[in-house]
């Protein structure tokens, strides 16, 4: 790197030519931990299978044109798609039960459950400190959402 303030793309190129992280950080007058943090924020990681450094997200032009010595924050384009993130369904159910509007339970609804299913719902209600009618209503709503999406 012959530039005083190289861009992320120039740093990536130097790393792929065989420059070691610690040497690169020293050339830039940076602590190694700060240098690694900047690479991480810019979504630059080492592909262990290929043995090269790669930019792993969408917009290379925007992200890699930033100077390395400037503050490097994660841009929207540097974040992986939210599709890969698994949802914690149990937490969502709990959160939905906590913000439930009692005015939604005005109409009387009746249905019959098998004894095993009723006992399971009753135990879940007891374990999570959730009123059983709110829990059942949210379980039904989540089930209907699932079938509408599928």
What does this protein structure show overall?
The protein is mainly alpha-helical and 150 residues long. The protein has two domains: 8-79, no CATH class; 89-149, no CATH class. It has helices spanning 8-16, 21-27, 32-41, 60-64, 89-98, 115-128, 132-149; strands spanning 44-47, 52-55. A hairpin with a 4-residue loop joins strand 1 and strand 2 (52-55). The protein starts with 7 loop residues before the first helix and ends with a helix.
Name the shape in a single word: rod-shaped
- Percent of residues in helices comes to 40-55%
Compute the number of strand runs: 2
| Total helical elements | 7
Radius of gyration: 26 Å
Please trace the helix and strand order, writing H or E for each element. Answer: HHHEEHHHH
Main sheet specs: 2 strands, antiparallel
In angstroms, what separates the terminal alpha carbons? 52 Å
> Which strands sit side by side, in order, in the main sheet?
1-2
Please state the structural category.
Answer: mainly alpha
Q: Strand percentage, roughly?
A: 5-15%
How many distinct domains?
Answer: 2
């Amino acid at each position: 790197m012959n530039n005083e303030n190289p861009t992320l793309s120039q740093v990536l190129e130097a790393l792929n030519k065989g420059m070691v992280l610690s040497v690169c950080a020293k050339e830039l007058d940076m602590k190694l931990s700060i240098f690694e943090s900047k690479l991480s924020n810019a979504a630059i990681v080492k592909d262990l299978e290929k043995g090269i450094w790669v930019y792993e997200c969408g917009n290379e032009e925007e992200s890699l044109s930033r100077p390395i010595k400037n503050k490097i924050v994660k841009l929207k384009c540097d974040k992986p798609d939210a599709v890969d993130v698994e949802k914690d369904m149990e937490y969502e159910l709990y959160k939905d039960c906590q913000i439930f509007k009692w005015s939604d339970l005005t109409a009387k609804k009746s249905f019959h459950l098998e004894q095993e299913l009723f006992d399971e719902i009753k135990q879940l209600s007891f374990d999570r400190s959730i009123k059983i009618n709110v829990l059942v209503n949210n379980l039904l709503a989540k089930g209907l959402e699932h079938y509408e999406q599928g």
